[in-house]
Design a protein that fits this description.
about 325 residues, alpha/beta, TIM Barrel, 8-stranded parallel beta barrel, 13 helices, 9 strands, about 15% strand, binds SN-glycerol-3-phosphate, binds calcium ion, signal, GP_PDE_dom, PLC-like_Pdiesterase_TIM-brl
Length: about 325
């Protein structure tokens, strides 16, 4: 099971129930954002994002219980949370429970909900332009049809990526990676960028180049299920931290992490729960552990107790509140 609630299930539920509570709450923001994509971010509301030359945000915030103590190697990694810190919140496809996934408005909702990290998926158009979209086709999340790789950038630019989720988001677009990165640079935050599906070296090079052009390399963490993509990324930009996505655990995750030069091993929470000792082994090797996609307090607690470093969730504001509330309680 990849998601506690699969994208398809979420889509069907949204189509039948109309507005979600979250969508209603951010409808005004959506309307303003869709019609005026780049308003200045109010300093009072801005998240504490690092500048382009600063280090990535380490986990911060109130203490939370955890069962696995970091060892010496773990303390050398900025991606492994210190004892007493809560897990990092990654907003999966933006705040995808409250806004249409992988759009700029979903990213903005995540930021305003306190998430310092946003997860997005990237894949190329027919003419080689990287776009932010999860599925292999545009059918589920836009008003168009067809494979992303069969559509030109002009065709992708014309699609409505918001109406499927709720009328308030009509007019939201499928962002290019360049637009997404520029938005991130302007508005703040860090990006967990998933290279979605098999990519050629040239396609990965385009992604790496666009990240470099926005001068936010130090705010981007690359992840992929596709091992060759990670190898290409490492060859092209060894400064980019890498995470390997896994549905199931490798027999020896530490060996895989060392071989690929991983900063993080990003595994399904269901798989990790079957062999929780893997967390300690990876930490001992200086490799962080992030889990996906976790949307309930019971599972947040289970993963927190295992000592994972980050939780990828469709409900980033709720998870942020949960970590704060848990420590306060
Ligand atoms: O970030 C982890 C998660 O995004 C991997 O699965 O299918 O949602 O891209 P998927
Ligand atoms: Ca993803």
């Amino acid at each position: 099971m990849k998601d506690a609630l699969s994208p398809v299930s979420r889509s069907r539920r949204r189509r039948t129930t109309g507005f979600t509570a979250g969508a209603v709450a951010v409808a005004a923001l959506s309307a303003a954002f869709v019609t005026a994509p780049s308003p200045p971010f109010p300093p009072s509301a801005a998240p504490s994002a690092p500048g382009p030359s600063s280090e990535p945000s380490p986990p911060s915030g109130p203490s939370a219980p955890r069962s696995v103590e970091p060892d010496a190697k773990a303390s050398e990694s900025p991606w492994i949370r210190p004892a007493g810190a809560p897990p990092t919140v990654f907003a999966h496809r933006g705040a995808s429970s409250a806004a249409p996934e992988n759009t700029l408005v979903a990213d903005e909702v995540a930021r305003r909900g306190g998430a310092k990290w946003i997860e997005n998926d990237v894949q190329p158009s027919k003419d080689g332009v990287p776009y932010v979209l999860h599925d292999a086709t545009v059918d589920r999340t836009t008003d168009g049809t067809g494979a992303v790789r069969s559509l030109t950038s002009a065709e992708l630019d014309a699609l409505d990526a918001g109406s499927w989720f709720a009328p308030a988001y009509a007019g939201a677009r499928v962002p290019t990676l360049a637009a997404q990165l520029a938005d991130l640079r302007e508005r703040g935050g860090n990006l967990l960028l998933e290279i979605k599906g098999r990519h050629s070296r040239a396609e990965v090079a385009r992604i790496v180049r666009e990240v470099g052009e926005q001068a936010i390399t130090r705010r981007v963490f690359v992840q992929s299920f596709d091992v060759p993509s990670l190898r290409y990324a490492h060859e092209l930009a060894p400064e980019l931290p890498l995470g390997l996505l896994r549905d199931t655990l490798d027999p020896d995750p530490v060996a895989v992490a060392k071989e690929l030069g991983l900063a993080a091993y990003n595994v399904s929470h269901v798989a990790l729960a079957r062999r929780p000792e893997v967390v300690g082994a990876l930490h001992a090797a200086g490799v962080a552990v992030n889990v996906w996609t976790v949307d309930t307090p019971a599972r947040w607690k289970a993963m927190d107790d295992l000592g994972v470093d980050g939780i990828i969730t469709n409900r980033p504001a709720e998870l942020g509140g949960w970590t704060a509330g848990r420590s306060a309680g």
